[in-house]
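Continuing from the previous page...

OK, I double-checked the sequence for Glycosyltransferase family 9 protein against my notes and this is the correct one:
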Amino acid sequence: MRILFITSTRLGDAVLSTGLLAVLLARYPRARFTIACGPVAAGLFEAMPGRERTIVVTKRRYDLHWLSLWRACVGVRWDLCVDLRGSAVTLFLAARRRAIMRGGRRQGARVAHLGAVLGLSPPPLPVMWMAAADRALAQAMLPDGPVWLALAPTANWAGKVWPAAHFVALARALRALRPEMRVVILYGPGEAERRMAAPVLAAMPDAVDAGGGLALPQVAALLARCGGFIGNDSGLMHLSAAVGTPTLGVFGPSRMSEYGPVGRCARGIAAPGPEGSAPIAGLEVAPVVAAAVDLLGWRA
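Thanks. Re-ran it with the corrected sequence; updated structure tokens here:
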């Protein structure tokens, strides 16, 4: 059986879609999967069982990337095509069945919209696949002993970035409750991400700098070793929730009702004001500390 699964170019959306893949893997354990996704998300699927191929879809002018994807897929007779991008690509492929996500703004959680593509309600939780080597690296970087707390102080646009000084004050308040706590700083690749994380790294010289250079399964393995995660609305937040780490997402103008973290132990906290326009700097440190203490169970 051959399954084509077209998912997002963005990391967070791609993470949210992994629950659908887990359902399909359970239904069709002998199926061979081809994943089509953006460059940032490609690493999510490296250790996925049943994956035959990943097609990296790089956006091109005039939507020519869809033509490239069609050319890469047209020679196969597919048993199932799942298209979460709502494109026309699968309509021009030989396929026994198709499940296409339609566009347009919808109310409610994004993960519920994704689940509806396969008729799944409630929707499945996101997952993450890791290899033994990824777990071994994480063990070496974050050895047993300390309580590791992951902070992710970056995001893909400035409006979603909680001030660096707030992250520092948050970490100090939590360390006062758990002196054995150590901080792990996570951020994405590239100089822009490094610059956003730099003030937090400078203020906490004993923190583990785990940003920029790790593959996504390695980052996931690090997160799985952490006792908690606090970060901006980002792909890292969704990845943390997917591995089951207690996750607190910090929201400003992005919509927490749609993109709040989804996992066994995950929640969000939003800046005061109308959803979709509330400045994230308006979210004070104290309520985030209180939400983190409640989530993590760290009492004085």
